[in-house]
Amino acid sequence: SLVVLFGATAGAYGAKLGSDERELILLVWQVVDLQNKKVGTLHKSLVKADNLDLSDQCREVSGLTPEGLGKAEPLDRVLQQFSQLVSSDLKVLGRSSYTLCSDGQLLIRQVLHPETSKKNFLLSDCFYSFYDLRKEFHTCYPSSAAVKDQTIKTMAEYLGLGTDEAEEDFGVWQVKTMVAIIFSMLSEGCNHIFTEPETVKHKYETGPCLSSFFFLCSSKSETVDSETVIRARGLPWQSSDQDIARFFKGLNIAKGGVALCLNSQGRRNGEALVRFVNSEQRDLALERHKHHMGSRYIEVYKATGEEFLKIAGGTSNEVAQFLSKENQVIIRMRGLPFTATQEDVLGFLGPECPVTGGKEGLLFVKYPDGRPTGDAFVLFSCEEYAQNALKKHKEILGKRYIELFRSTAAEVQQVVLNRYMSTPLIPTLPTPIIPVIPPPYTIATGSVRDCVRLRGLPYTAGIDDILEFMGDATGDIKPHGVHMVLNQQGRPSGDAFIQMKSADKAFMVAQKCHKKMMKDRYVEVFQCSGEEMNFVLMGGTLNRSGLSPPPCKLPCLSPPAYAAFQTAAVIPAEAAALYQPQALLPSTRTPQASAAAPPTVTYYPAQAAQLYMNYTAYYPSPPVSPTTVGYIAAPPGAVAAAATAAHTPILPQPGALVRMQGLPYNTGMKEILSFFQGYQYAPDDYNGLIQLSDQARSVLQAPKEWVCL
């Protein structure tokens, strides 16, 4: 028996049915006894949608109204009635089993399955197998129009069936005409037999795609038909292959056909490549462009088989063996201690979520040199065990919390292959980014008291708090004129310096804001000069006893003292202009003006000087972006010596650089400097000359133990 089924939504009709995510509002069906050529009762049922706003096309074609639909039953109740009425009709006809038959595939694949999936209730098994009347008709009548061009009306006209659509209600005419077409196909001239129904997969099959094993056994990889692949974009970062399969519910995805795309850090980037069993399924998937997954709309585009193979096609023997177990749920663990063993992971998961095969169900991801990456994949035999494992998300193993996510076979292949094929982090020495600052943003020097010092700031105070504290006076702050003083650990010291536009403005601020409250503390405000500010920023102290110079091993920090040192490398203004400006500490003394001003350079002291500097973060006045201090300005003597020196660029000797891996993503320069606190620079000469671009034609010297990032 067949159950001829017809339906309509509140939106598009015909070839665009289901493409707009509108809900089902009408179901019409009738049972057909193929052997005896009898029919059951024709049933028509309205469906109450959550959104009763009907499109103009729907109103015109169906004649339905929101008022009429408001009295109908919801979809789940209608489907229950459908099953009961079909069973009753089958008993009357003396039949026991049936298969659905619809006009095309849209009603089943693009409407019923997606909508019931979103509303979280299951369809009965009868909706996973059906006959496409258009395909059956074309098989019976090969000279008829192509399947994609067929409609109920064109099939009836081809057979010469005289039915008037206007005489029947919407839906009723369609079902009666489909039944007449089926009886014509069963006539003695055709004797058509319905033998191969369309199928809808009950669930997505995980596991490696075919190309993985083909890749292992052949010198050239299998090709994937580009007409079967799409790219989904805008996915939630935590979405799994099962979530994506649910988004495409009703369409048949190839086994292992969901490949989640990862970024360079191995994290999901919100895209996935999906491979369907044939081009017809792919074309239906493209109609779901901008359909929703939760509150997000998903973009769906065509992709190529080559793109899919790049993500999911490569593997290794280790991965192939790991994925050889069928129908397993894969969980990815991230953030494992580098010393974690298989026993540690099994103990972390516990007896409530046993791993398939014990240790054989674990796959640790490693770098090419064998070092662990902190990632691992785990196999579970059922959904229950996987859910128990996911409950341990962000629990502690050792001293680290562990992240757990659903994963896919394609992600396993992609992560492991990317790590296996990864190249050294710094294969060749990169061109350095040299922090320089143009003259307008240098810190003012001299004895003019155009600065103010804020002392006793709350340690939680930021730039916004200071600007609010100063009130109307913020308009008189120079660009890049707010300087937060940090201690050697990179933490706020409670002090800050403000550069004002004039000494009068600084005096007014000191008078107005002295001992004014900020949060729960009063702040002292003193007028000072640029020279006094520089002493403090360089590590000195400023108190009632006067200035105390910064503690260091140099006789002094003044420019004349540098003349006896070995010539340092300099960066002429032409080269410095190639780089993004950053803040720079100037000389602590104001050099005398000369007829020919030397080029603006950045200076790196030649002797091994341990400067106990307060690592100062320079914050500009809005809207300029913040900058940070890095180096000391070059004295005129070094500039003059470097101007006549001939530079021969060489690469640093082995061991002169260190590489840091595993840094937190929010690590800044202050944290790195604090990490290396206590290590002094090498006392010998420079050995790290790094050639810049051809345009710069300059070199940069760095002491042996400086950290290069």
From TrEMBL:
RRM domain residues: 329-409
GO MF entries: RNA binding
An annotated GO cellular component: nucleus
RNA-binding as UniProt keyword: yes
SUPFAM superfamilies reported for this sequence: Ribonuclease H-like (SSF53098), RNA-binding domain, RBD (SSF54928)
Keywords: mRNA processing, mRNA splicing, Nucleus, Repeat, RNA-binding
Main subcellular localisation: nucleus
Location(s) in or outside the cell: Nucleus
Highest taxon of the lineage: Eukaryota
Record-level GO BP terms: mRNA processing; RNA splicing
Similarity remark: Belongs to the ESRP family.
Protein name as it appears in the record: Epithelial splicing regulatory protein 2
Biological source species: Melospiza melodia
